[in-house]
Every structure is written in C-alpha cells, then in structure tokens.
Structure prediction request, 416 residues.
Amino acid sequence: MAERHSQGPLILVPKNDLLTRLSVLAMSARYDNSCSSSGGRRETHPYGLGNSHLSGICHTFSADGRCVSLLKILMTNVCTNDCTYCLNRVSNDVPRAMLTPEEIATITVEFYRRNYIEGLFLSSGVYCHPDVTMELMIRAVKILRHEYRFHGYIHLKLIPGASRELIEEAFLLADRVSANIEFPTETSLRRLSPQKTLSELQRPLQIVREIYQERNRKAPASTQVIVGATPDSDKTLLSFSETLYRKRLVRRVYYSAYIPVNRDETLPALSEPPLLREHRLYQADWLLRFYGFTTEDLFEEGEYLPLDTDPKTAWALRHPELFPVEVTTAPYEELIRVPGIGPISGKRILQARRYGTLSEEVLKKLGVVLKRARYFITVQGKPLVILSSSQRKALETRQLSLFPELLEKPYVSSGL
Ligand code: SF4
Prediction:
C-alpha cells in the first residue's frame, strides 16, 4: 500500500536509468483495463512498418480476458490530481518517471521489431496541464506515424480538460481512444476524484462522437468504470453504461474490480478485489449490447446481479412462463434469450432449419451449448430433458446447486 504524504519533493527515477523508468511506467499503467484488441483494419504502407488487424492487435488474453501483447505504459506517472484510489495520485510517496515522446516512439518500434508487442497503449498522469500532457502524447504518436511510418495499432488515452483541437488530433492519429469516467455518479466522483466532474470526463468522448456523427457510425472509443470502490450498485453501473451506448459515446465499457493500493478513509476496506462481480458485469454488458436485454430486464429483483448464476440464466429462471422455446419455429429474438444460444448459434439455427430438420446432434454442431440450453428448449415439440417434479420445483425456486451444469464458472469465455 502506498503511503500518503503532503506533496513533498518528487522522487524522480534518474533520466539515465531507462529500464527503471520503463518498469515504473508499465507498473503504473497496469490498472487500466480499457485497451481492446478490436482495432481497425489497415494495411501497411509500401515503405511502412506494421499492420493493424480487425482481429485485434492483442492476440493473447490473460485468464480474466485482459489483453497482454500491447506495450501498455504511461508517458508519466507524475500527476497533478489526487484521486484517492489511484497509485499515481499527487500525494503518494512513489517513484516518479517520465518518457519523452522520442523515447516512447523508439521503444515501441524496437519492441515491435523484436516481436515483443504488436501495438501501443499510451496513457498518462496529468502532467502540468491537460493540454501539455495531450500535446506530448500526440508528439510521440506523430513520431511513430510520420517518422517511423508505424502503421500498427495505437490506443491513446484522451486527457480530460485538453482542448478540442488536441482531442481531435489525438483521435485522428490513433486506432482507438478512451477516456476513463471511473464512476457513474457525481457523488462518487466528488468523494474519490474531487478534481473531476462527470461532464468534464465525458467531454473528450463527446468530441469524438461529433467527429463520427456525420458518418453515422459508432466511434472507436471506450471507457472504464471501477467496481466496488463506491457504493454504486450493479444496476447503477449498467444503467450508466446503457446510457453511454445509447448516446453512442463509446463502443465498449470496461469494468475494473477495485484493487486497494492506497490507504484512505474514503476507500472501502476490501480484503480482495470483487473479481466475480466484475465478471458478472461483463456478462450483463454483453447482454445489453448483443442480446437485446435492458437494465430493467436484468434487475427485476434488486440492484445487484446474482453471483452464483450468470445473468442470462438468472433471467430465464425468473421467467418460466417464456420457456421452453421451440427451436424449429421461434424467432431470433426468442432464440438468443435461451441460455446456451448466442447470436452466432441463433443465426445458424435460422439458417439450418430452412433446409433441414433440427435435432440434438444438429444443435450441438451449430454451436448451441446444450448442457445449458437443454432445460429451456424443445425440438419438434419434444423436451431434451425430462425433469422430475422435485427437479422442476428446485429449478423454479432456483436451488441451483442441484443443477451444477447451470452454474457457470467465473472467467470462462462468456458463452452466454
Ligand atoms: S488523474 Fe488519473 S493518474 Fe491522476 S490521480 Fe487521478 S486517476 Fe490517477
């Protein structure tokens, strides 16, 4: 845990110790989740270096779904702000370091050539002023793009408070941008990030959306919210995400389980980060974006998602009147509400039933997760599993321990 002091002298890593500066800045960036593999597709210039792929520049994901093959660093961990949950806050007694734009560009290219990385995720503490910070970050990307002709993936963090011109310039140079909003309410922000306001944090995303509005496309922007540092419920967090999606401010919201790194009376005393809660929020977020669910659907019985069941199964169990679904005739919207059937397998079912007969075997081949779907579907009017009356009662009262196959393990792929 970092100790708080009252803004004494900075402990700066010496300029000639590049390795230590790099490791301090990489460590400082590790709590930011909002990097994504889904960048844009762009082939390299004939004399350029690197491609950017639709499949994503981060081909490797850690067990909890975070990508790991970007060079993910801060330009500096010097920051004028004092967010209580953040390792880099001005009042923390931690070593500080900074990389020049030239150093960032050179390191990225050298790492790329050695095949260590496939792109860059560049963020920063607020150094002097948001405009100064944004300008230095843009300078690094310009060197990469124009001098090294680097055409690989670049994700830039937009600095709230920077001028519109700089935000536009950063957005046009990068493949993806993000601005972390961190908390869904002004009350939470006031408590943990007193120098920030919701409107200031959302402004860079609004500028990006305005640039994209005329193209009628969703901007390649994302944000991150912290889970568990404030009393904000799952419903509050997901309603906030739903609003951001509806306003087309972001393509994706990342959820970051709060990791205690500081001591402060405004912070909760958690023994461990709420990782399972984070996982359930990601699952619910997928339901909002790809399955036609609303936050009202997901929170019919309270403010929090159940931890023992994935949110889609929990919804299906609350609605026995809507099941079983007959897979040979149900519309797409009903099919994808079945646990174990996703948008891809749902579309395959529509296609397959036009030309042939559906059966358990065929459904398996189409990608349906039968161990979950079998309780909620019929094929040609026949159920795939005959439940005894006590099993049915247990299912209806949601005593899920009787059906271990319905209990999804955390950190497996969504398989919703
Ligand atoms: S502005 Fe960012 S880097 Fe600075 S203290 Fe707040 S969260 Fe940390």
User: Anything to note?
Assistant: DSSP finds 15 helices and eleven strands in the chain. Residues 311-406 form one domain. The chain has two domains: 11-298, 311-406.
